[in-house]
UniProtKB/TrEMBL annotation:
Protein name from the UniProt record: Stage V sporulation protein AF
GO biological process, one term: spore germination
Keyword tRNA-binding: no
Pfam family, one: GerA
Transmembrane region(s): 407-426, 475-495, 501-518, 530-556
Organism annotation: Paenibacillus tianmuensis
Keyword match Membrane: yes
InterPro entries: Spore_Ger, UPF0353/GerABKA_families
Residue ranges, annotated region (Disordered): 1-88, 155-189
Protein family membership: Belongs to the GerABKA family.
Domain of life of the native organism: Bacteria
Biased composition (Basic and acidic residues): 22-35, 49-60
One GO CC term on file: membrane
Keywords assigned: Membrane, Transmembrane, Transmembrane helix
Length: 606
């Protein structure tokens, strides 16, 4: 028994130590002298290679694929055949080569949403190329159902009397060509197959042919479907697309009490249709182009041909064509910066609108509108400062009520810029107080200087605004209570802020929120902060100089060669009357000269 125990101990041996788990080491980064990350080095590669490659990179002769794995090298380094397939533009007759072209150019068999479906219709091998998620299932189902009758249609075409077809002034896929030479017969057969599918078998409205592979790929990337036929160098493109889109609803920033409730969405075709519905003039032109080498974002330029100044249209068109970037994923804002180029000026040079009725009204005034796909905002060119302070609600009421609403808005916008600097200037310089306004100023000074109170409160309001954007709707009310009661009231009771600072800051904030243009309200807020600081430091001279600089900046600014403060500078009596007073509809007989319209008459002459 004791011998068995000793033997068991001998077999068991010493207990093994558990290996501690070590996480995989990360690759070492290769950084140049300017701090740019130019590559990585795997931990299993020698450090001498890293130093050598770093020196080669500094001299500009290094290998750009240092630190890549073998698999990554294989994916990035193309063979001569792969490069030729990637750069080819012609549609191949052989489906095997065609699929290799699609593999190299669009990632077929790599991207899960790129589909190439092979089917046979009427003895003709057909390839259906599309992006899953863009296609309309029911439309393609109808097309495939129709294609299933290809044998029947072809047999009927072959048994038709050729004499009837010869009477037609043109030749199509039914035309008899037995007397043609063999080479022409073969080419005619190719045309007949394409014509058979295009004219008789594909029951869709928007269909076109192409012999360019890039055009077919671009059409599919925009949501279409391409039909390839083996033995043919031509494809049939069907525009049967369905983009993920929301329904039209009233814009949050341009609400009205009375009026239409529809608004633009992220789909270009829907937005164009909403404008076409309101402007049924056949001279309304909508030109489409693409911006971005990689994104190929659709951009549409809209104008009424016999009203709009064609020099303005050409200028906008040329500037859009000159945009050479990888893409504009942020849509209209990036395009605006590319075609306007106003650098650091905070005031907007274009007007945005999400209301189709507002856009239609500007079209009738001779403006140019720019749609950008994936964006519900439409750019209006050119615009002035006074375009940004008008609202659709003014034209939905009677002229006297519209004028009253406009002046209330003007007062609110002026208060949002000048109220706080003027109050701070009067309080800090008591000799400036006019008679009867001696009550202005805090009765008890706070523990924080007035300028500090204003700056802290301004930053607090901006912080609450940003928090409201990112806060879910059920929590927005709770956030407002916290900001108003726990922060504002407690700060006043603690003596950190004075009541008048909160009062006047609230009035300025309401004026900011009453500004119709969100971009203009942000620009006014920045100018208000600048005037506050200048008035606190330099007193009256600082406020006067700051206001003068602001006025000069606005007067010198131009939007497509249009004065920004027109009709105030340069002064135009008739146009200024339309700005100050909401004129009755039938009294507006001519268009304003701002856009230099061809036809200035609003009402047709009898």
């Amino acid at each position: 028994m004791n011998k068995q125990i000793k033997r068991a101990k001998l077999i068991g041996g010493k207990p093994k130590k558990l290996r501690s788990f070590k996480p995989p080491e990360e690759d070492k980064l290769i950084v140049d002298r300017e701090g740019n990350i130019i590559g990585s080095l795997s931990t299993d590669e020698p450090e001498e290679l890293s130093a050598k490659d770093g020196r080669e990179r500094d001299t500009g002769s290094g290998d750009s694929e240092t630190g890549m794995s073998r698999k990554m090298r294989q994916e990035t380094q193309l063979t001569a055949e792969e490069r030729e397939l990637k750069e080819s533009t012609e549609i191949s007759e052989d489906f095997d080569r065609l699929k290799r072209q699609l593999e190299e150019q669009v990632g077929l068999n790599k991207s899960f949403d790129v589909i190439f479906r092979e089917m046979v219709f009427g003895g003709q091998k057909t390839g259906i190329f599309y992006y899953n998620g863009f296609i309309k299932d029911y439309v393609l189902t109808e097309i495939l159902e129709r294609l299933s009758y290809a044998d029947q249609v072809r047999q009927e075409a072959e048994h038709q009397e050729p004499a009837e077809e010869r009477r037609k002034p043109y030749r199509n896929w039914r035309t008899d060509h037995e007397e043609e030479p063999p080479g022409r017969q073969k080419e005619g057969n190719r045309r007949n197959i394409i014509g058979l599918f295009d004219e008789a078998l594909i029951p869709h409205v928007q269909v076109k042919r192409t012999c360019k592979l890039k055009e077919a790929i671009d059409n599919v990337a925009m949501g279409g479907t391409a039909f390839f036929f083996e033995g043919q160098r031509e494809a049939v493109l069907v525009d049967a697309k369905s983009f993920p889109a929301r329904t039209t609803e009233e814009p949050e920033l341009e609400r009205v009490v009375r009026g239409s409730r529809d608004g633009f969405v992220e789909t270009l075709l829907t937005n164009v249709t909403l404008v076409r519905r309101r402007v049924r003039d056949p001279r309304l032109k909508l030109e489409i182009t693409q911006v971005g080498k990689r994104t190929q974002t659709d951009v549409c330029i809209g104008y009424i041909q016999d009203i709009c100044d064609m020099k303005l249209v050409e200028s906008v068109r040329d500037k859009i064509k000159e945009v050479k970037v990888d893409g504009v994923p942020l849509a209209e804002k990036q395009l605006e910066e590319a075609i306007v180029g106003k650098s650091w000026n905070p005031y907007p040079s274009v007007r945005y609108s999400e209301r189709p009725d507002v856009v239609a009204a500007h079209l009738l005034e001779g403006h140019v509108i720019v749609f950008v796909d994936t964006s519900p905002s439409v750019m209006i060119l050119p615009t002035t400062f006074f375009h940004h302070v008008q609202h659709a609600e003014e034209y939905r009421q009677t002229p006297i009520v519209g004028t009253y609403l406009r002046w209330v808005r003007f007062i609110g916008i002026a208060a949002s810029i000048f109220l706080l600097p003027l109050w701070l200037l009067i309080v800090s310089s008591p000799e400036l107080k006019p008679a009867g306004l001696e009550f202005l100023g805090p009765q008890k000074p706070g523990r924080i200087p007035l300028l500090g109170q204003f700056l802290i409160a301004e930053l607090g309001i901006d912080l609450m605004r940003m928090a409201a954007v990112h806060t879910p709707s059920p929590l927005a009310i709770a956030m407002g209570l916290v900001a108003a009661i726990l922060v504002g009231e407690v700060a006043v009771k603690a003596g950190l802020f004075t009541n008048e600072v909160i009062l006047y800051l609230s009035v300025a904030a309401v004026g900011t929120f009453a500004t119709p243009s969100y971009e203009l309200s942000l620009a006014n807020r920045i100018c208000r902060l600048a005037l506050l600081v200048i008035a606190a430091v330099f007193k009256v001279p600082g406020f006067v100089i700051g206001s003068t600089v602001l006025l000069l900046m606005l007067a010198l600014q131009r939007s497509y060669n249009t004065p920004y403060l027109w009709p105030f500078i340069p002064f135009n009596v008739n146009a200024m009357r339309h700005i100050l007073v909401r004129v009755p509809f039938l009294s507006m007989k001519t268009r304003l000269s701002l856009t230099r319209p061809k036809d200035r008459t609003r009402q047709p002459q009898r």
